[in-house]
Amino acid sequence: MNTTGLKIEFLADHPHWVETLASWHHAEWAHLFDEWTLEIARIELADHATRHSVPTTLVLHEGGQLLGSVSLVIEDAPELQGEGSPWLASLYVLPSARGRGHGSRLVHAAVNLAAKQGVECLYLFTPDQAAFYERLGWTRRMRTRLHGNDVTLMDIALPMANAA
Ligand SMILES: CC(C)(COP(=O)(O)OP(=O)(O)OC[C@H]1O[C@@H](n2cnc3c(N)ncnc32)[C@H](O)[C@@H]1OP(=O)(O)O)[C@@H](O)C(=O)NCCC(=O)NCCS
To answer: With the C-alpha atoms ordered 24, 7, 90, 108, is the resulting torsion angle positive or negative?
Structure first.
């Protein structure tokens, strides 16, 4: 596909997308978190939009249209905080734009950003996308339960050579 117009940039450089992203994220994941309202999702993303380091969010867009996002956060689910930090979180691609490599691009961008910021190991949990992450180099560590949902905890070691 032609990827000439695709850009992955910091939400901090496109803060007008905070509201849209908050509604996408909340509709997708509210069932996994206690008391995570749309307003809290908006506040968290508005905070991410103030910086270019963890916790932060990257957006993928093309021709002025927002297509997806990924976040790097210190804590994702409090129940899993003892397993490690930081976390790749909130990977989301607009349904009509899926299956064109955008999810993979966003994961690569987040991993590269973490490596540049000196992170040695990055974590994530996923209810149903473990095979997708495995194809991108992530390792399954354990299965656990989160608010009645089975989730897989995964990690990826980041080569120090990539660190800035
Ligand atoms: C998961 C998600 C981000 C993938 O986005 P995407 O843009 O469709 O991903 P890609 O196009 O980069 O997919 C890359 C490849 O993985 C494959 N793939 C996608 N989901 C997969 C899965 N669950 N298991 C195995 N392979 C998968 C795709 O078919 C594609 O294969 P190809 O390269 O041979 O065509 C997207 O489906 C999404 O936003 N889902 C809802 C939110 C979500 O579940 N986020 C992850 C939370 S942990």
So the answer is: positive
